[in-house]
Design brief:
Structural class: alpha+beta
Strand content: 25-35%
CATH topology of one domain: Immunoglobulin-like
Shape: elongated
CATH superfamily of one domain: Macroglobulin (MG2) domain
Distance between the termini: 117 Å
Number of helices: 2
Order of helices and strands: HHEEEEEEE
Number of strands: 7
Length: about 180
């Protein structure tokens, strides 16, 4: 065996006929009609999209109302209570928290509820967090709860009030504690 025949499956016979090999077929040409169809389809799709964008009105975001006092918390769902939180600095590092809780829809005062609050300094979140602070119902004022708490230092605080029972709800309020009267 010769080295060339080693790699071939069939040995060549001397004086044998040679096979007539055809040249390899060229890849079929793409038809011009196909390309024209694709181009036409893309053009129509872009035209329809452009017309749709030009004729539709954009949905803008509603403008946010700027208020100095946030609206009462109204969590989603018809069973959530409505809380109106008022917090004020009463001197030194003391903050008075007062909450009015009413039921949804009828706005009847919620009595004998379990309400707690947390204070957290806005400039240093979670480093001066206090709570839970239990709010007690004010005698003679149905649905009004109150608590007096001390904050650790001057600054702006976020007060989170949460009604745990009978209807779940929560609300936030900010209070600014800037002056401290020292006793000497």
């Amino acid at each position: 065996m010769t080295t060339t025949s080693k790699w071939r499956l069939v040995e060549q016979v001397p004086g044998g006929r040679r096979r007539n090999r055809r040249p390899p077929k060229a890849p079929p040409r793409r038809r011009p009609g196909f390309l024209a169809g694709v181009a036409t389809g893309m053009t129509i799709a872009v035209a329809i999209s452009g017309v749709a964008l030009l004729t539709s009105r954009p949905q803008g975001r509603p403008a946010a109302a700027t208020t100095t006092h946030p609206a009462p918390a109204r969590p989603t769902g018809s069973t959530a209570a409505v809380l109106d939180v008022k917090a004020r600095h009463v001197g030194d590092l003391q903050v008075q928290i007062e909450v009015r809780a009413v039921s949804p829809g009828a706005y009847q005062p919620i009595t004998m509820g379990r309400m707690v609050a947390w204070t957290d300094m806005i400039a240093m979140p979670t480093s001066h967090r206090q709570g839970p602070i239990t709010l007690m119902e004010v005698p003679g004022k149905r649905g009004t709860y109150s608590a007096l708490t001390n904050v650790p230092m001057i600054g702006e605080y976020d007060i989170l009030v949460e009604l745990q029972q009978p209807l779940p709800a929560e609300a936030h309020e900010r209070v600014d504690v800037q002056t401290v009267t020292g006793t000497t």
